[in-house]
Design brief:
By secondary structure, the chain is α/β, with parallel strands linked by helices. It folds into 2 domains: 11-48 and 287-386, 3-Layer(aba) Sandwich (Aspartate Aminotransferase, domain 2), CATH 3.40.640.10; 64-285, 3-Layer(aba) Sandwich (Aspartate Aminotransferase, domain 2), CATH 3.40.640. It is built from 12 helices and 12 strands. Helix 4 (103-115) crosses helix 8 (251-264). The N and C termini lie far apart (53 Å).
């Protein structure tokens, strides 16, 4: 049957691509052709799940009920997440405020729909995770881009909020993607106070908690009960393909999110919830990852500096597993640069234009979540290739 002559995709679907996924597709095609690829383009831990966790998942396949669960998740998993907050932060949370979701992405969709009406203005910092603004726009909300600054770790400030006003909501990530920087202490308290004074609902993305390089983290859930706090089992625990996350909700949003979840998703996948239960029961086996990622970050940073990149061009990460670098000495077209790098070295990385429309044309993000061997090999290849890419004329 032919579509109507006036058929067209919706305006909401006219969003920017997630270029990291384009790079992944190109890298996979190269790999399928038998070429070597070092995957540094997507934020995905390179380790296999520990054997004890795999065994627990196999046991669940044989013995656990795997049909529909409650819309907000298995009660035992919600209790387990509440216990995680107690152990990590000394924070007491009612499990009823926790909704298990189809990845952190599902948490964002449900939270944005529950908290804001169409047309609401949502602040989103640049550089930042691309789907923030895409989800906001696709849900008929209005993304308001905040041009964050290097001296503030590319984190939003009360002054940024004032310039962008009026805002109905603000999305913040700590540690952040792509920079790995954090919003903590007095800076965070000031931002939360500024948002509270202006009636701005904060959505805090804490998906990289557990991967802070030094010291510990504090959660916004402990200091701002009106905030929405999103997390996931993807990063520290490596359940990326299982698509399982959670959100800590203010009490006024629990019922709205539950009704939306019932209608939009029915429930998160049961087997993914049992996988999440398994990692919570064995989370000690994941403790060494933060230091390994820190060592990988340092190894790659040293290789880039040895190849002629000024150390000040590398954003100092406090956590997560990304190295975000200003490559202006090598390119003014990060998309083309990443394409050449993949074709000529087999190193796949993400162009900064994915994260920052204004300044990202000379930034590149490398994920250091791969194996130690992959990071070492990438450092060698880039050490050979990068010096020949330096731009010769000043400023151009």
């Amino acid at each position: 049957m032919r579509p109507p002559s006036n058929a067209a995709a919706s305006k909401r679907s006219r969003v920017d691509p997630f270029r990291a996924m384009h790079v992944l597709a190109a890298a996979n095609a190269r790999e399928a052709a038998g070429e070597s690829v070092l995957h540094m383009e997507v934020g995905e831990p390179g380790e296999r799940l520990p054997a004890v966790v795999r065994d627990a998942i196999v046991h669940a396949l044989d013995h656990a009920p795997l049909g529909y669960t409650e819309a907000l998740g298995i009660k035992a998993l919600r209790r387990g997440i509440a216990e995680l907050y107690r152990d990590w932060y000394g924070c007491t949370l009612e499990p009823e405020r926790i909704a298990v979701t189809v990845g952190a992405s599902g948490a964002f969709v449900l939270s944005l729909l529950a908290a804001f009406d169409a047309g609401a203005r949502i602040g989103v910092g640049e550089p930042g995770y691309p789907p923030y603004k895409t989800m906001v726009r696709a849900l008929d909300l209005a993304p308001v881009m905040l041009r964050t600054q290097p001296m503030h770790g590319f984190q939003p400030t009360p002054e940024d909020v004032a310039v962008a006003a009026p805002l109905d909501g603000l999305i913040v990530a700590s540690p952040a993607n792509p920079t790995g920087t954090m919003l903590e202490g007095v800076a965070r308290q000031k931002l939360l106070a500024a948002c509270r004074a202006r009636g701005i609902r904060v959505i805090m993305d804490e998906i990289y908690h557990g991967l802070v390089f030094e010291g510990g983290e504090t959660t916004v859930a402990a200091e701002a009960p009106e905030a929405i706090v999103v997390n996931s089992f993807s990063k520290l625990f490596g359940l990326t393909g299982w698509r399982i996350g959670w959100v800590v909700l203010p009490t006024d949003l629990v019922e709205p999110v539950e009704k939306l979840a019932q209608n939009l998703f029915i429930a998160p996948p049961a087997i993914a919830q049992h996988a999440a239960l398994a990692v919570l029961q064995h989370r000690a086996v994941f403790e060494g990852r933060r230091q390994r990622y820190r060592a990988n970050w340092q190894r790659l940073a040293a290789a880039l500096e040895a190849s002629g990149l000024d150390g000040s061009a590398i954003v100092k990460a406090a956590g997560a597993f990304y190295l975000y670098a200003d490559m202006a000495g090598f390119t003014e077209d990060s998309m083309a640069f990443c394409g050449r790098m993949l074709a000529e070295t087999g190193v796949a990385a993400t162009p900064g234009i994915d994260f920052d429309a204004g300044r990202g044309h000379h930034y590149v993000r490398f994920s250091v979540a791969g194996t130690d061997h992959d990071i070492e090999e990438a450092a060698k290849r880039l050490g050979t290739w990068l010096p020949g890419q330096r731009r010769n004329r000043p400023g151009g």
